[in-house]
Design a protein that fits this description.
Chains A, B: One of its GO terms (biological process) is L-tyrosine catabolic process. The structure is a homodimer. In chain A, 16% of the residues lie in helices and 26% in strands. By secondary structure, the first copy, chain A, is of the alpha+beta class. In chain A, the strands form 7 sheets. In chain A, strands 6, 7, 8, 13, 14, 16, 17 and 22 form an 8-stranded mixed beta sheet that branches.
Amino acid sequence: MAPLKSWLSIPSDSHFSLSNIPFGIITSKYSQTEKRPAVAIGDHVLDLQAFATGDGFSGLPSLKPHLSVFSQPTLNAFAALGQPVHREVRKYLQDLFSDTTSHPQILKDNTALQKSALLPKHETKTHLPMQIGDYTDFYAGVNHAFNAGSLFRGPANALQPNYYHIPIGYHGRASTVVVSGTTIRRPNGQLLLDPTADPKVPTFGPSRRLDIELELGCLLCKANPMGEPVPIKEAEQSIFGFVLMNDWSARDIQAWEYVPLGPFNGKNFGTTISAWVVLFDALEPYRADKLPNETKLLPYLVEPRNDTVFDIQLEVDLTTPDGSTTTISKGTGKNLVWSFPQMIAHHSVGGCAMQPGDLLGSGTISTKDDSGLGSLLEMSAGGKKEIMLAGMDVRKFLKDGDTITIRGVCGGEPGALVGFGECVGTIESAIPFP
Amino acid sequence: MAPLKSWLSIPSDSHFSLSNIPFGIITSKYSQTEKRPAVAIGDHVLDLQAFATGDGFSGLPSLKPHLSVFSQPTLNAFAALGQPVHREVRKYLQDLFSDTTSHPQILKDNTALQKSALLPKHETKTHLPMQIGDYTDFYAGVNHAFNAGSLFRGPANALQPNYYHIPIGYHGRASTVVVSGTTIRRPNGQLLLDPTADPKVPTFGPSRRLDIELELGCLLCKANPMGEPVPIKEAEQSIFGFVLMNDWSARDIQAWEYVPLGPFNGKNFGTTISAWVVLFDALEPYRADKLPNETKLLPYLVEPRNDTVFDIQLEVDLTTPDGSTTTISKGTGKNLVWSFPQMIAHHSVGGCAMQPGDLLGSGTISTKDDSGLGSLLEMSAGGKKEIMLAGMDVRKFLKDGDTITIRGVCGGEPGALVGFGECVGTIESAIPFP
């Protein structure tokens, strides 16, 4: 389909084409410091609070009773209005920005409203888009699960017997989910330097195996009461939208702590998500089939269709402190064996209450071959080989000052990209501990 | 010490003596339906919103700038004022209710304020006392950890090599933490009925091994920013107070799902806490030594003193649908090998941000012998033997309609008890699944 054309100048390589319209939370860098909702469009953002105040939604009268959602510091209230409203608002904004808008007087020809609500992106700052209620991380990237399992237990026992029956997941830490750009401090913790020693005695210090996890995050918009599961056929309606996610992981802390109750301090020091929430509708044209699962699923996990993941081109850059950047991974969002609707159906099947603002992580997304691995653990074969970087540099795990940048984009047609922008974090050195 | 005497009639066996003054959230059953803070005292509650409105805090001028915390639907804002303020308010209220109050005109002789703020407990309803940010469940009850580990791996390998080095914990589900009295629906889920089959194939249905976990919950009052650990010496100051907790567990769902990332649907369908938060200060006289740990701890876990758990007498009653009640466990809160300050120091040592309203669970508290086990799993030796109940009834795990009541109380002197009241939940049958 031909790109939608806008009267606003939108760079053709922008992730935020008229086909996208992702939602986020901004402040202005210089004046208005209160957090408020916005959409990203090309090199601009539309401040939805100013836009609503300036009668920008006059062409969408059904939204009138709900305009206060755009005076909130998070997107939770807007998300809670549900997918039909997100759909209407996105379509309305696409129309307003299009060359052939049916309401030119509202924005296209209204320089006063443009002045108050349409801000250059570089004059704004983005914030965590939602107040995260609970954060759950799944393990749906089967290639990663196989690679990680092989390192620990050998290829024959890499995947547990439950893997193809259950979208395996664990509860994560919501308080340390942060927006792209937030510095991540290397964690201190207990490290078992000699795993073969008997007895095993840990030492204390900064993690030496600090890693990334390339994931897709899914933010929910719908609540189900405790005790009332979300049926698989309705689970898609619980999705507000998607973000890129880096689930930073301290492999050495994790290895010593995780038996028998799972990862804890190896993960809870920080999880970065991208700032702009790409709506479910915007990704709809990029549906793709899940990876094959030969196992006969229990009915509560059987989806009406198989194309329930998305063809998102994913890239990971590592920038060293001297500023040289290497793309260390090129993968795709298709590499999942479980979809988010399946994760939602499973998460709630025993009665767990889900809420708008809950964050679900896909688990690390890796290609089957070495081109698009989602963690340094896999790229370095468990820390056994060097990852080659530009400028003769090498890494096994992250050094202080390293920056990780994840990018994700759908489609290839200039002017019609649907992307996530970037999910960025820089590693700060561990605090000295008394 | 002699019991503090009150001008208000307080039953001598009340958990809510003048020595206690626990905080909660109430609504009135008949009129005022908005949630508001209160304290429990004997068979009454003091409605703190009405009390503040009626100038009840006029004798505590330092609190004046903060009185709006008593017009909140949770205790989070009050908790965030910090331990010194909780201490002042508790002492002030103890004085106002005492026979020899220094401010008789404020409440003792003020029938108008008594009428508006001092409500019969049975005319009020309690609610979740705090908005839980994140919920973390630890595993500090070493007797339970040993018993459960023995059932799965034999006594020789019952405790993992990390157990005495790390306060093991995992992230739980905050959205399903509910107040005492909330019905708990039996979860459906994946069950591996024949664990010896090859390949392993799960079936779907209601949990057949629905269990309890007797725990103590700790609610936090202090935030630490991400990246800045809470030092062990300051960790006690992060504690707002304590509640009883029942971490309902579906053992069969848990057994099939928990490798490799820990418990998930086996736990997230519901966690019950008691309604009244017993302040840190109220438990201070009941400090007790932790269970011995011969392991040399890393410095960040070394406490300045060893008496950092509490001598709380714990009881668990099981009431069958026909109404007959059996006390199935009599234990003590002393049976922990890690204290809450140690859990806080460990939880935050890598930089995890903690917040007022975070809930930490102790893990299941069991006696070393069979008198005070904290789970049916232990009482039934993994479902192998019947637990004898009154009226010739028996159980291995919970049946629909069963009610579990946990009680906890410190001290034995009539009129001076410091107790938690009850933590109650009744099992409702699983929903039929299509």
